[in-house]
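Researcher: Quick one. two chains, 228 residues in total.
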Amino acid sequence: GEDVEQSLFLSVREGDSSVINCTYTDSSSTYLYWYKQEPGAGLQLLTYIFSNMDMKQDQRLTVLLNKKDKHLSLRIADTQTGDSAIYFCAEAYNQGGKLIFGQGTELSVKP
Amino acid sequence: DTEVTQTPKHLVMGMTNKKSLKCEQHMGHRAMYWYKQKAKKPPELMFVYSYEKLSINESVPSRFSPECPNSSLLNLHLHALQPEDSALYLCASSQRLAGGTVTDTQYFGPGTRLTVL
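Model:
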């Protein structure tokens, strides 16, 4: 069945780059998403990438997709303390609106 | 505007109470979703509505009863809940459901923090 995996924790220093990785199994996925969740809040859509793209850049965010290895990454340049949150990757399972989420990566940014 | 609103923000209820959660969007989206999320875990899909009709029920206990009175509103009626139902309940919406090779982006609300005593 479909599965999405992420490492659970990442700690970086303020100003460094953060790279959050995700692997997925459903090769028919068409869209892959990154959501950010701050404590006590809902999920904020950060960015998404179509499966026919290799890379997407949006200000400090860069998404890389390796479709052959089913590997997705999110790079945050110049990481700030406000970037501390849980980051979920999700693939759109192609049956009527279901999103398959990874377990989430908790990013801790130290000053 | 990609805003989904949810009320109330917090809710505390006893196991014998009946309460409702409300979700609203004015983006013209025709698919709406309820998720349950435990602390530091990914959201778990509960229900999906498409064009005001229930499309997916992920085997949710009948003490949770969804309702979609119109294309902008989604309710979740709660009755005889258990303490293990305490969680963050998230609503989301998308333009429509996935079909064929088309997938639609889901936008989430801020959630209702539910505590069942």
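Chain B has a mean pLDDT of 92.
Researcher: Thanks, that's what I needed.
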